[in-house]
Every structure is written in C-alpha cells, then in structure tokens.
Amino acid sequence: MKKRILSGITPSGSALHIGNYFGAVKPQIELQDSGETYYFVADLHALSTVQNREDLERNITSVVLDYLALGLDPNRCVFFRQSDVPAHSQLAIVLANYVTYGHMQRMHAFKDKLQKGVSVESINMGLFNYPILMAADILLYKPYGVPVGEDQRQHVEITRDIAEAFNKKYNKEVFPLPEPLISKETGKLIGTDGERKMSKSLGNIIGIFADEEVIKKQIMGCFTDPNRKRATDPGKVEGNPVFIFHNLINDNKEEIGDLEIRYREGKVGDVEVKEKLFAAHMRLFKGARQRRQELESNLDMVRGILKEGAVKAGKVADQTLDEVYRLIGEKNKLNQ
C-alpha cells in the first residue's frame, strides 16, 4: 500500500513568486507521485490573522487556483478545503483536552508574538490554539508523514505528544505517530536585489502569474555583477542572481552554458542575459498561466473539484472521528 501523506496549504494571500515555487510549492506538488496524498487549504487557520471577508475569499481562491494551475491533479490526490470537513473542528475540540496550557505556552507562534512586544491580552485564541487544530488536521487522516519546513517541526512534535497522550489514556493506538518530513531545501532563493531572500514585502521578487510586463520589469531590474561597468568587461557568474535564476528556470542548458562563457569573457551584455531569462520564464510557466486563466473563468469546475475532494476526505475523517467518539464515550447507547 502507498504511504499516506497529508499536506496543508496556507491561504496567505501573497502572490506566488519563483522563490515560493522552487522552495516549497514544486516539492509539495511532486509528493502526489510518491504516495496517497491529501492536500487541504487551511482556511480555518487563516482566521487567526485574516478577519476581513473579501480578503479571506480572495486569499482562498488565489491559493486554490495557483496550486491547480501549477500541477496539483485531483485525479492523483485528494484536494479540499479544511472548513468543508467539519471533523477537523470537532476533533480539535476533543484533542484540546489532552494537552496542557503550559505546553501550549511553549509553542513558537505564541512565544514569537510575545517577543515582538504583543501583549498576552491581545493574542486571539485562534492563534493560541493553532497547534491543536493542526494536530486534528493531521491525526484525522492517520498519515505516515507531514511535509513541513523546519519552523513547523514543533507543530508536528506536539501533534505526536497529543496522540501519545490520547493513546496512553485509552490504552489503544488510535493515532499512529506522524513523521515530520522536513524539506531538504536548506537555502533560500536570493531576491532580485542580490542581497536578501526573495520576499514580496521586500519587493525583490519575480512573479509567476503577474502580467507579462510586470514580470519583464522585475527581471530587467535584477541585480547582476556590480563590478561590471560595461558589456565588454569580464563578469562574475557565481552568486549572480540572474544566473541563479537561469539555472532554475531555463530548460535550455546549452543556452545557459553559452551565456556563462560569454559573460565571463565580456562578450554578452546584461540586457541579453535578462531577456533570455524572461523568455525562459514565459516558456516554463506558459502552461500554468493558461490553466490559471481557464480555471478563473470556470469556477464551477473548481468548486466541483473541492466538493469532490471534501467528500473523499470526509469519509476518512468521519471514520476516525467516529472511532474517537466511541472510545471516549461521546457515541453511546443514547445516540447510536
């Protein structure tokens, strides 16, 4: 049997850029070829920071369209919204009784807020209870593993703690302990400024689904070799953001090799190197950009995908919740 993997997608609202894609989205989507995969949009988690109806709807729609356009295939995985499967919220209420207040106070998300000077009184319970809902998200599907970044390792660890406490309390292994599948991606993609990691807030990104003119402007504004004053000056390829991006994006490896040789010899200008990078970007993401436009104009189909995914996920989730309810006594002779 294929090992089951569960992966949550946060509807952050930030426009996807190539740093997101190569660092997280691409490896996440590739998981659908390695096991029985469940992907869910963590829309209930988003409420801890997004409490505007229009913003929330836009964020959720954006992440759903992005992932479907980039290759998430509902025929090879189960794709659904967290809020469409009530068992997530129901199990979270149960699991809250098997973790202590002290344990929750040690969680990174809570501690980070305090370290940034936010008062305890202003922290909402959605943020404080975030790890409990995340534990419910995971344990409902009894997955072998959960792909997370290093910063999310602690949330999988508390999920294991809660599962162990529950199993021990009822002397039955209801919940297998999930493994944190930590991404091997250790580096962060440098931004177009050549100094900091690529981030929308820093304005140093190369988008994926933005207008062509916007993407071209982002690429043409890329930092290159600061010591190269003229196109005839020998240039440095190593650590040069434009060549880093070429090696990620450009499918024409022969072209990259030629550009690198000519750049080192001072026989090609930055403009040509960047124009070829833009052309490579348009080739790589052409299909995804077209699919996203098609999906955006056919939201009925998208709703159908999510509805079907919720039905499939609900069957697994409800079975786990029923098992839990019977074990703890919520399912009894009065409601069976």
TrEMBL record:
Record's keyword annotation contains ATP-binding: yes
Motif, 'KMSKS' region: chain positions: 197-201
GO process annotations (BP): tryptophanyl-tRNA aminoacylation
Pfam families in the cross-refs: tRNA-synt_1b (PF00579)
Catalytic activity: tRNA(Trp) + L-tryptophan + ATP = L-tryptophyl-tRNA(Trp) + AMP + diphosphate + H(+)
GO MF: ATP binding; tryptophan-tRNA ligase activity
Gene Ontology annotations for the cellular component aspect, listed alphabetically: cytosol
Residues given in the record as L-tryptophan binding sites: 137
Keywords: Aminoacyl-tRNA synthetase, ATP-binding, Cytoplasm, Ligase, Nucleotide-binding, Protein biosynthesis
SUPFAM superfamilies according to UniProt: Nucleotidylyl transferase
Compartmental location: Cytoplasm
Main location (coarse class): cytoplasm
Keyword Cell inner membrane set for record: no
Record: residues binding ATP: 10-12, 19-20, 149-151, 189, 197-201
Gene3D superfamilies: HUPs, Tyrosyl-Transfer RNA Synthetase
EC nos: 6.1.1.2
Enzyme class: ligase
General function of this protein: Catalyzes the attachment of tryptophan to tRNA(Trp).
Family that this chain belongs to: Belongs to the class-I aminoacyl-tRNA synthetase family.
Assembly information from the UniProt record: Homodimer.
Protein name: Tryptophan--tRNA ligase
Source species: Candidatus Collierbacteria bacterium RIFCSPHIGHO2_02_FULL_49_10
Gene designation: trpS
